[in-house]
Design brief:
With 269 residues, the protein is mainly alpha-helical. The protein is built from seven helices and no strands. It has one domain.
């Protein structure tokens, strides 16, 4: 609901408010000065990831707790199915980065559904943009380290392509690898989070608005207490779908990062 509620809103007079400034959506109203809520939630997401791994592995057990088993399953999934499954032998060295990426994005995504936070940190373009930039630096560095200048040469003059088409395909590959990849990686996460969070806010907010206005006699009882709950039920259905979407977006971002690294290590693939 934070996308349409202002700190200055008086719930006795109006249930939904338009903030005086868009910056109000990203500021914490007390004690933080110039530190906005995005900064605080980034640190909080990182601390949640560190704490989850610490408490899951600090005391190895023959029979792990349910929490430990859940975290271990996540770690095994990223290491075996993404790092080794996509990159292949040697992929385990990228496992810590991919695991950090997956868990940070997952926790940050679920902040959008967390009461009293309701703010997916990936909905600020700077966050997915920075994560995509880190992945970009890694796969470009790996490409040049593994292949040397042949990494760029084979991109501009791809082998196995008819000579007449190589200049065109080379330009397409150059733009795709060095420009489109990081941009599309960031925008995919950003757009999905913004769209889902906005839809939830509109549906749940509309339900609240219809009921509130009917209770104050501004609209008919039938319209307010029938249409309003229907909007709310529909919003809750989208809420459940959003849980799946948020998890998938963390997985897709991590998977594509592994795919890009693998393509730099094994260009023939």
């Amino acid at each position: 609901m934070d996308v349409i509620l202002a700190f200055s809103c008086n719930p006795q007079e109006q249930p939904l408010c338009i903030p005086d400034s868009i910056l109000e959506l990203f500021e914490l109203p007390v004690l933080f000065g110039s530190v906005n809520r995005t900064m605080v939630y980034i640190i909080l997401a990182a601390l949640v990831v560190v704490a989850a791994l610490y408490f899951a592995y600090r005391k190895p057990r023959v029979v792990p707790t349910k929490f430990g088993l859940a975290v271990e399953s996540m770690v095994d999934f990223v290491r075996n199915d993404i790092a080794l499954g996509v990159i292949g032998p040697g992929g385990e060295k990228y496992g810590p980065y991919l695991l950090s990426l997956f868990m940070f994005i997952l926790v940050g995504n679920f902040f959008g559904l967390t009461p009293f936070i309701n703010f997916p940190i990936g909905s600020r373009m700077a966050i997915p943009g920075f994560l995509a930039l880190v992945t970009y630096v890694i796969f470009v560095f790996v490409g040049f380290k593994k292949q040397g200048l042949a990494y760029l040469g084979e991109t501009l003059w791809p082998p196995g392509v008819p000579v007449a088409l190589r200049p065109l395909i080379g330009v397409i590959e150059l733009v795709s690898i060095f420009i489109v990849r990081p941009f599309s990686l960031a925008v995919r996460l950003f757009a999905n989070l913004v769209a889902g969070h906005t839809m939830l806010a509109l549906l749940l907010g509309s339900g609240v608005y219809f009921v509130w206005t009917a209770a104050n006699g501004d609209i008919s009882f039938l319209k307010g207490f029938v249409v309003g709950p229907l909007w709310f039920v529909f919003g809750m259905a989208i809420f459940l779908l959003e849980i799946l979407v948020l998890t998938l977006q963390a997985y897709i971002f991590t998977l594509l990062s592994a795919v890009y690294i693998e393509s730099s290590l094994n260009p023939a693939h």
